[in-house]
Backbone:
């Protein structure tokens, strides 16, 4: 008897600011190291909204229709024969990066422990690489699936992906113990950077955002001082408190204005960590100031090996993070979720979509 083909529900970008429900074939395990996951919760990320509103991030251009989404958690439905860490019924959060297959010859980046810059990588919801997770089921390598401890609900679990970027961002900076830090942009990534910076011993954290409610969130995350660059001169205000400058600036909003402010407030020998994704293809620097101060500039590419650290933070009862989840939507309201995040409406920080109906 011929095997019956199953379909699944999907949500797809069909044009700029257009999301429509659709369907596709339910994926099947094709390799013995793969895991089939029934998705429960999907987080809406700023990069997803870039594709929704602009149709591209740099040279990564959407070919409509396209399924976005990369922050997700769900339940293992079945596993390949070689899968050893997971079993059906396990609750997992997904690392959306799919690097070189361990069975193939590793590229130079993976061989050097830099899976985040893998030459052959595929990333969920990235045009030209892999369809996203706004669907009912997904197949991923076992190495991309991390078991969720029982105390962590699915909603909080999807925060592991942005929080892992924050953890990796801190690893890329100078040691935090006793450091004076500025975080420009207090959206989900900026907040996910403040939290591990505090835990790693940052002495003072200054945070900015153009939305006052996000400044309130930055205080909850651990910032000591906040400022709105539309209402005050951020650089002079910070320098009045730190006359010699700050040790490190995490630029988490992708704005030229914030980059210029960062260069102004950094002390000689300081570090500028670029985390935000600009909508423009080019940014510029005051090279005279950078040269005279001997500033180091480091770009952060997603995360690298920090998912377990992020899950540990989510499990830590002393870490306050649930305030980041401000809105919840059913699967059928995915378009409303994207429009909310794109318009920064209703004090949104992180919107999550329930693909499976269980929180």
Residues:
């Amino acid at each position: 008897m011929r095997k019956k083909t199953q379909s699944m529900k999907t949500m797809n970008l069909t044009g700029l600011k257009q999301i429509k429900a659709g369907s596709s074939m339910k994926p099947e395990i094709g390799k013995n190291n793969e895991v089939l996951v029934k998705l429960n919760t999907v987080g809406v990320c700023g990069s997803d909204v870039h594709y929704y509103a602009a149709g591209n991030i740099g040279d990564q251009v959407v070919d409509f229709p396209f399924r976005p989404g990369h922050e997700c958690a769900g339940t293992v439905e079945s596993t390949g024969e070689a899968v050893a860490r997971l079993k059906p019924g396990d609750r997992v959060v997904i690392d959306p990066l799919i690097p070189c297959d361990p069975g193939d010859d590793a590229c130079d980046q993976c061989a050097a422990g830099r899976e985040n810059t893998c030459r052959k990588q595929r990333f969920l919801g990235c045009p030209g690489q892999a369809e996203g997770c706004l669907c009912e089921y997904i197949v991923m390598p076992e190495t991309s699936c991390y078991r969720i401890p029982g105390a962590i609900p699915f909603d909080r679990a999807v925060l592991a992906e942005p929080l892992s970027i924050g953890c990796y961002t801190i690893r890329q900076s100078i040691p935090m113990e006793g450091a004076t830090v500025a975080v420009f942009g207090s959206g989900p990534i900026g907040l996910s950077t403040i939290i591990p910076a505090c835990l790693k011993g940052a002495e003072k954290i200054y945070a900015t955002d153009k939305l006052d409610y996000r400044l309130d969130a930055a205080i909850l995350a651990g910032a000591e001082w906040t400022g709105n660059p539309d209402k005050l001169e951020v650089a002079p205000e910070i320098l009045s408190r730190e006359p010699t400058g700050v040790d490190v600036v995490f630029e988490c909003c992708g704005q030229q204005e914030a980059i210029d402010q960062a260069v102004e407030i950094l002390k000689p020998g300081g570090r500028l960590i670029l985390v935000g994704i600009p909508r423009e293809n080019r940014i510029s620097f005051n090279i005279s100031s950078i040269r005279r101060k001997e500033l180091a500039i480091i770009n952060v590419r997603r995360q690298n090996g920090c998912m377990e650290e992020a899950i540990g933070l989510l499990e830590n009862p002393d870490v306050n993070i649930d305030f980041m989840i401000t809105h919840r939507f059913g699967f059928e309201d995915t378009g409303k979720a994207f429009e909310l995040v794109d318009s920064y409406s209703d004090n949104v920080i992180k919107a999550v979509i329930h693909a499976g109906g269980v929180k």
